[in-house]
Design a protein that fits this description.
The complex is a heterodimer of chains A (about 350) and B (about 250). Chain A has one domain: Orthogonal Bundle (ABC transporter involved in vitamin B12 uptake, BtuC), CATH 1.10.3470. Helix content of chain A is about 75%, strand content about 0%. Chain B has one domain: P-loop containing nucleotide triphosphate hydrolases (Rossmann fold), CATH 3.40.50.300. Chain B has ten helices and twelve strands. Chain B has a six-stranded mixed sheet, sandwiched between helices. In chain B, strand 8 and strand 9 form a beta hairpin. Chain B is globular and about 50 Å long. The mean pLDDT of chain B is about 90. Classes of the chains: A mainly alpha (about 350), B alpha/beta (about 250). Chains A and B meet through helix 9 and helix 10 of A and helix 2 and strand 6 of B.
């Protein structure tokens, strides 16, 4: 691929992504002009407050509701997508993702336990949910990989996907059980299982943003190792990459990204599968591009799905997980069939 | 510089594959590893390269290979595995450039101009430079083999371990491969004489590329010495439990 073409594609993608974000913020029952929207954003960023001529209600709708919600969706979509891209490379499996490996379901059980029991971390109260999500997500993915390895030493595509599915179902069972025993939270838990960005605000962004940045930098620093890992453990070892260590570090990062996303928004599937796949088709498999572009594409896709979820049956909201699944499931099937046909 | 193996035993799971191996390979040697299917040739290569665990001693330049950092070990020994699965369609250029990871200076494996220059040279040497922008899933088996060979050369280590490098290559490329390996073996890397350790099934190729033979049977070394004595009809009968001489028309090639 020539460099000029790639550069152009990156610019187009970035512009498209910004455009989608603006559309997501503007669309809805309350209309705002572009001028007012940028006025509000500028006013808050420069600390001048609401600009003249803009109603305070408009300011609160856009600055305290829609903006953080869209950004939250964007970051969650991006976080899930880069963790998907990373898992796929590590396991050399286009069907691997936090969702198919059960990380998302595991994380949601952790979050549900926090919700039901009311336990909080001392001092870092705000981090209780993401922390529980991280720990349980990590436990599930470890269980999935250990089980896969026990059954099939080479950890083939089908084994991983099947075990992930089995674990997800099992963990969902636990979640169902929790919601049956705890009537008070059952509605909340149900919504959790489908994911939603409703009422996500700046305080969520404040946690998501630094975590995303740090994890993204961490993964970017490993991008060449990940390229080498995509050739499988044996070749990676031969080329000088410590396969085990690289796997452990990157799975930790992925579990953190997924855990925190799920803890804040619930289980949302398929983005982590679809975004990296599309990005590889457009930009090739090298991770120094796959990772940032997956973030942008996954983020934009998620923001768009959230827009659909809150507008299509307006004023009712449908869970965003349902939207991504409705778009993602046929895509998943497509990837599965095509990759099977290609297997030599 | 040499590789020293003492009382080495290797396992796959609980099955013992290699039993009590003693071996010494000096820098500058050209060693053929022969034996029937399942005799432990591939396992031996992988243990020597430090990729699979072992009991006993495997020392490279006096250091136990299993306690070396992976990247440090890969600077000294590059291994081209027999089967190379491709999961993601990297371009030929990207693939060969990845070979420079171990030897390139930066901690996170950044690429510098020297790496690029060397990768291009390796692609030229292996006759794949015109495939530079193709993707791995567009290549034929033989082309892929040559690309992976170029990537192994790009690793720039004085010990080159090749597991059936002639796989998928037509007769012309097999001959070229021998010439290339012989030429490479006369050079030095980081002032260490280059050494070849190769598994071949094609005895003709083995004799063209190597001077010493290590013949294996059931996980043990049963012959170690000059290649012409290691590939006599009697020796081959012993190794393969099969009369190789009667199978080959021209007895002179044996």
């Amino acid at each position: 691929m020539n460099k000029k073409g790639t550069g152009l594609k990156i610019v187009i993608s970035a512009v498209l992504c910004l455009f989608i974000l603006v559309v997501c913020i503007r669309a809805g029952s309350v209309y705002i002009s572009l001028k007012d929207l940028f006025g509000i954003i500028g006013g808050h960023l420069t600390g001048k407050g609401t600009p003249e001529g803009v109603a305070p209600m408009m300011d609160s709708i856009f600055w305290t509701i829609r903006m953080p919600r869209a950004l939250c969706a964007f970051m969650v979509g991006g976080a899930l997508s880069i963790s998907g891209a990373c898992m796929q490379a590590l396991l050399q499996n286009p069907l691997a993702s936090s969702y198919t490996l059960g990380v998302s379901s595991g994380a949601s059980v952790g979050a549900a336990l926090v919700l039901v029991t009311g336990i909080t971390l001392p001092v870092f109260t705000n981090f209780t949910l993401p922390f529980a999500g991280f720990v349980f997500g990590l436990l599930t993915v470890t269980a999935a990989i250990l089980m896969a390895r026990a059954i099939d030493r080479s950890i083939s595509n089908t084994t991983v996907v099947l075990i992930g599915m089995v674990l997800s179902l099992f963990v969902n069972g636990v979640l169902n059980l929790l919601s049956t025993f705890d009537d008070a939270h059952s509605k909340q838990l149900y919504l959790w299982m489908m994911g939603s960005f409703s009422a996500r605000g700046w305080k969520h962004c404040a946690v998501l943003f630094p975590v995303c940045i740090i994890c993204f930098i961490g993964l970017m620093l490993m991008s060449r190792k990940m390229d080498i890992m995509s050739f499988g453990d044996l070749q990676a070892q031969a080329m000088g990459v410590d396969a085990k260590k690289t796997k452990i570090v990157s799975i930790l990062i992925c579990a953190l990204l997924t855990g925190i996303s799920v803890a804040f928004t619930g289980v949302i599937g398929f983005v982590d599968l679809a975004a990296p796949h599309v990005v590889r088709k457009l930009f090739g498999p090298a991770h120094k591009l796959v990772l940032p572009m997956s973030f942008i594409y996954g983020g934009a896709f998620m923001a768009l799905c959230d827009l659909i979820s809150r507008t299509i049956l307006s004023p009712r909201e449908i869970p965003v997980g349902a939207v991504t699944a409705l778009i993602g499931a046929p895509f998943f099937a497509y990837v599965f069939f095509v990759s099977r046909r290609k297997t030599r | 510089m040499k590789i020293e193996v003492k009382n080495m035993t290797a396992y796959y799971g609980k099955t013992e594959i290699l039993h009590d191996i003693d071996l010494e390979i000096n820098a500058g040697e050209k060693v053929f590893i022969g034996g029937s299917n399942g005799s432990g040739k591939t396992t031996l290569l992988r243990v020597l390269a430090g990729i699979i665990p072992h009991k006993g001693e495997v020392k490279v330049d006096g250091n136990e290979i299993s306690s070396m950092k992976r990247r440090e070990a890969a600077k000294l020994i590059s291994l081209m595995p027999q089967t190379s699965d491709i999961y993601f369609p990297y371009s030929v250029y990207e693939t060969v450039l990845l070979g420079t990871y171990a030897s390139s200076g930066s901690a996170f494996g950044g690429i510098n101009a020297k790496d690029i220059e060397y990768a291009v040279k390796c692609m030229e040497d292996c006759g794949v430079i015109e495939l530079k922008d193709k993707h791995l899933d567009e290549l034929s088996g033989g082309q892929l083999q040559r690309v992976l060979l170029a990537r192994t050369f790009a690793q720039r280590s004085p010990f080159l371990f090749l597991d059936e490098p002639g796989n998928n290559l037509d007769i012309k490329y097999r001959a070229e491969l021998c010439d290339k390996l012989n030429k490479w073996a006369e050079e030095r890397t980081a002032d260490i004489p280059n050494s070849l350790v190769c598994v071949f099934h094609d005895l003709e190729q083995a004799r063209r590329c190597c001077t010493r033979a290590v013949m294996m049977k059931d996980g043990r070394i049963i012959y170690d010495g000059d290649i012409s004595n290691g590939t006599t009809p009697e020796m081959l009968l012993k190794i393969y439990d099969f009369d190789v001489a009667s199978y080959i028309d021209n007895k002179n090639t044996l």
